[in-house]
Design brief:
Helix content is 13%, strand content 39%. The protein has 102 residues and is mainly beta. Strands 1, 2, 3, 4 and 5 form a five-stranded antiparallel β-sheet that branches.
């Protein structure tokens, strides 16, 4: 099992209505919704976003949107292939698969 704190850099576009005094919190909210609790093949499971460490100046695009380069720190869990993991089973669902064809 590998738990790690990593730095992720991404680009996000923001519509003009989000530009203003609440821009920082709008970007943070978008990052949380997009990454936290999700699996990304490059990083593994993003457990939590620790902090947005860098927000570069934006570039205005053709349709009025602004492109920002964002760097943030995240706690991730990336299992290693063929690794045995110990866990406590909390719930079992009844899943029935059809029998294989003869």
């Amino acid at each position: 099992m590998v738990f790690a704190m990593i730095e992720i850099t991404t680009y996000e576009t923001m519509a003009p209505e989000y530009l203003g005094p609440e821009l920082g919190s709008s970007i943070q909210q978008r990052i949380y919704l997009k990454y936290q609790g999700q699996f990304h093949s490059m990083y593994g499971y993003v457990i939590t976003i620790l902090k947005v460490s860098k927000l570069d100046s934006g570039y205005v695009l053709e349709r009025g949107q602004v492109l920002f380069k964002i760097t943030f720190n995240a706690l991730v869990f990336k299992p290693v292939q063929d690794e045995v993991m110990y866990a406590i089973v909390g719930d079992v669902n009844q899943v029935r698969f059809p029998p294989p064809p003869n």
